[in-house]
Amino acid sequence: MKIISVSQMRKLDQKTIDEAHIPGTTLMKRAGIGIAEKVLEFLKSIDKKHVLRLIMLAGKGNNGGDVYVSAEYLAKHTDIHVVIYSICPLSELKGDARFYADLLPENIQCVVKNQLSKTDFKKGDIILDGLLGTGFHGLLRTPYDNWISTVNSVRLPIISVDIPSGLNGDTGMISVEAIEADLTVTIGLPKKGLIAGLGPKYCGQIKVVDIGIPNNFIEETDSDLHVFTEPDAYSMISKLPVSSYKNSNGSVLIIGGSSNYKGAPFLAGKSALRSGAGIVTVAVPTSAGIIQNSTLSLITREIPDSGKGVFSKESIPVLKRLAESADCIVIGPGMTNYSSCLDMLEAVLKLDKIFIIDADAINLVAQKPEILKIKNKYIFTPHPGEANRLFKSLGLSDYLKKDRITQADKLSEMIKGLVVLKGHRTVISAEEQITSINSSGSPSLATAGSGDVLTGIIAATVINYDSLYSVQSTLNKKTHNLKSNSPVLKNKNTSCMFNATALAVFIHGLAGEISNNGKRGLIADDLIELIPIAMKKISPFA
Q: For the structural domain made of 6-223, what CATH number should be given?
């Protein structure tokens, strides 16, 4: 899904009204109902005792109109008490916002307030922020400064409409303060301010509501960034052929583990199985003392080593033989960055295979970047610390202070491969592709082993990327700004690997969102079991 500017969104709205002859009231109703549905979905993740009232903050503009539509819908579809705090008398509203304010049923309490205080809220409130829209810029004026600071101080769940109030829709910057949302439900298409600057910090999770802007209008809109959302994921999960068998679903080889880190390769391996890989083999050093993993469907191979519990030159012949039958090789989880592992890594990377280079393998590449030989066959999955080591080794220390999108783009250019720069709003970058920002995820993923699980999902998804070729390749630079949706791919493998990787990152984030263990209780072992559930949530073909 394209990321666009505030002015582009405004033009799309107006063009839809003028040329597609869809009234503004219809667009607002679709937005309001879509917001309400996302609110109901969000509430499912919260214990019922923490959901007693919905306090909806309505500003003077269209965001306020969206709030009135949402309020009516939520009052009809839930038993939760709905209250509107309006920043102005309803008689001052204009246009579509006034139209829907006049339709509010009598059972919805609407209170006009000049100022807010903590006493206006209580335990069990969920706040919907519809104060300021994407057109906000400059300094906060009275009473918005009071409303925003009060809402942030009451420590209650907050959902923002379109964009957190006080955040600049183009730059992602704030003047003094902005709403710190747990969820932002943006309308139509994501705006640049949601992912630029401080946007990721203030937006929380991002969900997008489709209001029916014609596809051809969107296709004609220029964009150099993409945010990967659930509709993108839906289009990429195709039917599994009834004639499928284990070999047709691909083979993954995981090379990892050591006497210090015994579980990491098995987390990656099990997640690859749960993500649809047909066969997964985990290769570990013989002397590491790693006991057969309890997942009996994983194939474990003990590899000759130097007797120190890490891979060495002695490991190379056996690993090469195992690699011959693998469609994708994951290398690095729990491997350590001993110099003997570097010898093994350099030898294995000479094979003409798709490699997912993860964890300690990234740190080893940072020690000797020249071992990368095959263009467009590498998928790097660094967290920020690992990315920093790569920048230093490549003589690019000046990039350490750059934004994450710039960092990912530069790394992909330098390594001639695909980069998954992990973190909040993971960035996926590769040459010839529109850089993609992931929209899914939760702080629950901040747990040891979560990255190993992501690596396994990527491996399983990438080995089945051929089925993605028939899907519209909206992330390719040659098609992103064209009026036609027909794939125009310079490199089929690169494009499909990119799409598959973006899908895998989204699935990983969504699995974190749907956990019943809260934001603090999820562990990587639990996360693996949520992968099939997340995929089923996306598509009926999962």
A: 3.40.50.10260
